[in-house]
Amino acid sequence: MYQIKGKEYPCCTSVTMGLIGGKWKTVILYHLLSGPLRYNELKKGIGVVTERTLSLQLKQLEDDGLVNRKVYTSKPPLKVEYTLTDFGESLRPLLEGIAEWGVKAIQNHGKKVA
């Protein structure tokens, strides 16, 4: 058994899935691979995610140390930017591999719509 921030995990794989699993976390992380993004840029890039879900997932990723949230208050309007932390950046090879595999899955079993 492993424990991180009070949560117990039976194996290393479950640790990884606990941190990046779910429908939107890997999508958010993948979009942040290209560099800092504001909330609306993330929302526009992802498209179909609700604002509430995006906010909750970003908060969880921030709490888990994968995403950094920086607020710029020097002049109105308030600007908030999201970036990967060094820990989040360590996911780059995994996220790129997942994306590559997704392309292969589409080529073999699917099609692009809209």
Walk me through the structure.
By secondary structure, the protein is α+β, with helices and mostly antiparallel strands. It has a single domain, classed as Arc Repressor Mutant, subunit A. The protein has six helices and five strands, in the order ββααβααββαα. The strands form two sheets. It has a three-stranded antiparallel β-sheet. The protein is globular. The model has no long low-confidence stretch (mean pLDDT 92).
Largest sheet: 3 strands, antiparallel
First-last Cα distance:
44 Å
**Could you say which structural class the secondary elements and strand pairing correspond to?**
alpha+beta
Instruction: Output the strand order for the largest sheet.
Output: 3-5-4
Q: Work out the strand percent.
A: 15-25%
Low-confidence stretches: none
The 3D shape can be described as: globular
User: How many domains?
Assistant: 1
Percent of residues in helices: 40-55%
- What is the string of SSEs from the N terminus onward? EEHHEHHEEHH
Radius of gyration, in angstroms, nearest whole number: 16 Å
CATH architecture: Orthogonal Bundle
Number of helices: 6
CATH topology: Arc Repressor Mutant, subunit A
Q: Mind telling me the CATH class?
A: Mainly Alpha
CATH superfamily: Winged helix-like DNA-binding domain superfamily/Winged helix DNA-binding domain
